[in-house]
Design goal:
elongated; six-stranded mixed sheet; 379 residues; alpha/beta; 18% strand; 42% helix
Length: 379
């Protein structure tokens, strides 16, 4: 019942916001009766369709997936530009009343800019992500682990609009980089195993010297996390559920630990996120790497003694200005940061969620190289 009321509130808010855009733009467009009907009809369809973007298991496999996803991103730009136009016109009115020509030009400019920005944002999201190079100076890193290369993927969100073909291009790019290991930090899927198992199959082709490790994100728990853990293990991925595995290189040990998402315990009691459990039993003197979907896991991870935490979840905000809200909700939005003595790297994500768009937060494949911190020890 609570979910139903929230969905109705969302629909009402969207109807009001779409109504505002139509009220402010239609008079300036002067598109004639049929033009106004087309624009108003599109705005109504958009208002009714956008809430469906959160019903990913319903959208999977349906032709509506792309129109709904695109409408979501297009409206984000349309609303922002309409607001910007109103601010401009308010300043204009302080000097003199804008002419009808000015009203028309600014209205059409909003539509043109919306289309251009949307096209650019789609291109940013759908291209093979750039490779971001990051060096992390770890205190007391053994010489044998100097230059150890970790390839991080995060927030792939295979689902309504990210399918097998796009994932295969990402896998091919990763394999060309020849990493020592691959780390996938959650939100790999959006939907049920029966819907998407074939779509994630290219992950089995990831190659690296020590294998692919991954953890669950919050989106796995929106469908069937335990089934996904089993399915990913069938593909050869080493899914870490509050546990660790050791990699040995020339006598030195890298302990790769993984915890479940911070929200996991609400869905599966046995999956409650626990960095202390993940660290329990790690050999003395081992370098400690933690995979944790949310950067907000950092305080407990630092207390558990990890050297480096790799996270995602934030998408770097995905589309400005929503990045401003994402920054407020997360300890780290993107890039390299510190929690006490522990490093935290937060990926902007390799895929996207909702609109197939990115603006101001490009997707990334991250190659992280471990280096020795000069003169630093593990104390």
């Amino acid at each position: 019942m609570r979910h139903h009321r929230s969905f109705l509130r969302l629909r009402l808010i969207l109807l009001v916001l779409h109504g505002y855009v139509g009220w402010r733009l239609l008079p300036g467009l002067s598109a004639g009766t049929w033009g106004n009907v087309i624009v108003a009809g599109y705005l109504l369809c958009s208002a009714l369709a956008i809430p469906l973007v959160i019903r990913v298991t319903w959208l999977n496999g349906r032709w509506l997936a792309w129109p709904v996803a695109l409408m979501t991103g297009v409206f984000s730009f349309l609303l922002q530009l309409t607001l910007a136009r109103d601010v401009l016109l308010a300043g204009w009115w302080l000097i003199a009343a804008p002419s009808s020509a000015a009203m028309s030009i600014t209205a059409w400019t909003v539509l043109a800019a919306t289309l251009l920005l949307s096209a650019y944002a789609v291109w940013q999201a759908r291209r093979v992500p750039r490779v971001v190079e990051v060096s992390v100076a770890v205190a007391g890193l053994p010489a044998a682990l100097e230059g150890f290369a970790i390839l991080q993927l995060s927030d792939l969100h295979v689902g309504p609009t990210i399918k097998r073909a796009h994932l295969r291009r990402i896998v091919e790019r990763c394999n060309a980089l020849a990493p020592d290991m691959v780390a996938i930090t959650g939100d790999l899927t959006d939907g049920r195993v029966s819907e998407l198992e074939e779509e994630v199959a290219p992950l089995a082709d990831l190659t690296s010297r020590y294998g692919t490790f991954c953890v669950t994100g919050n989106h796995e728990y929106y469908s069937e996390a335990e089934a996904w853990v089993a399915a990913l293990r069938r593909l050869g991925l080493r899914v870490l559920v509050n546990e660790f595995e050791c990699i040995e290189r020339d006598g030195s040990i890298l302990a790769v630990a993984g915890i479940t998402d911070l929200t996991a315990g609400y869905y599966v009691a046995a999956h409650r996120s626990d960095p202390l459990a993940a660290a329990r039993g790690i050999p003395e003197g081992a370098t400690r790497l933690l995979l944790a979907h949310q950067p907000n896991s950092a305080p407990e991870a630092a207390e558990a003694g990890f050297d480096l935490q790799l996270s995602g979840h934030t998408h770097g905000g995905q589309m400005w200005p929503w990045s401003l809200l994402a920054r407020r909700a997360n300890r780290f939005l993107a890039g390299l940061g510190r929690q006490g003595r522990m490093w935290v790297y937060t990926s902007r994500g390799t895929g996207y969620w909702g609109p197939p768009m990115r603006f101001g937060a490009p997707a990334e494949i991250t190659r992280i190289r471990l280096t020795r911190a000069p003169g630093a020890s593990r104390t």
